[in-house]
UniProtKB/TrEMBL annotation:
It catalyses: ATP + protein L-histidine = ADP + protein N-phospho-L-histidine. This is histidine kinase. Coiled coil: none annotated. GO terms for molecular function: kinase activity.
Length: 387
């Protein structure tokens, strides 16, 4: 067998010495193993097909190298478990942060890796002894335990952050409504009473919207579909209602483009979608710059878009926008508060209407978030969603 120098992903050892025949063959077949593993995972693990290659492959090649080292007797790494916990912990944490996985998906990835390694070795007539098989199995079993532990802890942290954000966001409008109610008790000026009553109504409306978003999120997390009630209306009516309401608070920043499009959609869901997109554009767009809202019809479809100028969203953070309780780094770095459930709601509305959502973001173009749905959504209400 041809001798060659290798660099293991785990320890950067450029002179690993003599590898056992199995270790050498596993190293030679690493590319084949992960090409086959990726194909199988994308086909069978929920949420994997949407991941770009670098995110999907993650730290697994490092773990593979650890196992390869451990299979060589007298190699400095006498057990794959020496470095396995940190590698697997990182893998589980990244799966929680960067994917829409649930814990069974993390377990499946490792189980598929085990079967893929054995199938590839068998296909190339590489023998594996019982002792070597025990090392492979114990290494992968240990990695599963560590990865799932990290995955679970990360999601627990997300929930804690969400509860803190929920309490903060609900407290503000509740405090404002309470203050206005207290003032009404002490004034006899009907003009002031009217103004305070309007503020109470406005802040209670905000609280009601937050609670409705939360209830919808519970539906999302259980994999249920949104219950749509399609009606026939002109999308421009909803755009005008949304921009007029937003203009009362933020001034004349809104520029409406496009023409009337008459179709069949759930009016309340589309209105809340547009409110979420507009709210995000205001929060994260450059202060004082215009917010563009456009509606276009093409080939029996509606393209509804909201555009803002401002700090772009890095490509590797786009997917996190649509994960419940998660926000892009730009949002975390800023002063804006949020639950991280607005855009997941928008995605679910688009999918429940038989459509999809798209984000285009760059320094020179600004950020545009669009939903692309059929003009008549009624035939597509039972189409599957990503869940």
């Amino acid at each position: 067998m041809k001798e060659r120098n290798v660099i293991f992903a785990s320890d950067q050892n450029t002179e690993p010495g003599s590898l056992s025949p199995l270790s050498q063959r596993m190293l030679d077949l690493r590319a084949d193993v992960f090409a086959e593993w990726e194909k199988r995972v994308r086909a069978s693990v929920k949420g994997a097909d949407a991941l770009p290659h670098p995110i999907l492959i993650n730290t697994l090649p490092t773990m593979y190298d650890n196992i390869t080292e451990a299979l060589t007797p007298d190699y400095p790494r006498t057990s794959a478990a020496v470095a396995m916990p940190s590698v697997a912990l990182e893998h589980g944490g990244e799966r929680a942060r960067l994917t829409s996985y649930e814990a069974p998906a993390v377990i499946s990835e490792y189980q598929i890796l085990r079967s893929t390694v054995l199938d590839v070795l068998r296909r190339h007539d590489v023998p594996v002894s019982d002792a070597e098989m025990q090392i492979i199995n114990s290494s992968i079993d240990g990695a599963i335990r560590e990865a799932v532990t990290a995955f679970t802890l990360a999601h627990a942290a997300f929930r804690e952050q969400f509860v803190a954000s929920l309490a903060h966001d609900l407290r503000n409008p509740l405090a404002a409504a309470t203050a206005a109610a207290d003032l009404i008790v002490h004034v006899r000026d009907f003009e002031k009473i009217d103004r305070f009553a309007h503020k109470i109504s406005e802040h209670l409306g905000r609280i009601d919207k937050m609670i409705q978003d939360l209830l919808d999120t519970v539906v999302f997390q259980h994999g249920e579909r949104l219950s749509l009630h399609p009606s026939n209306f002109d999308i421009m009516e909803v755009i005008q209602e949304t921009t007029e309401q937003a203009s009362d608070v933020h001034g004349p920043r809104f520029k409406v483009l496009g023409a009337s499009v008459n179709g069949w959609w759930d009016r309340d869901a589309i209105r809340r979608t547009l409110e979420n997109l507009t709210s995000n554009a205001i929060k994260y767009g450059a202060q004082g710059t215009p917010i563009g809202i456009s509606a276009q019809e093409y080939d029996g479809r509606l393209l509804l878009s909201v555009h803002n100028q401002g700090r772009p969203i890095p490509p590797d953070q786009v997917e996190s926008l649509f994960q419940v309780f998660r926000r892009a780094q730009a949002a975390k770095d800023g002063i804006q508060q949020g639950w991280g459930i607005g855009l997941p709601y928008v995605r679910r509305v688009a999918e429940s209407h038989g459509g999809s959502i798209d984000v285009d973001s760059a320094e020179e173009r600004g950020t545009t978030v669009s939903i692309d749905i059929p003009v008549d959504s009624r035939p597509f209400q039972n189409a599957p969603t990503l869940g």
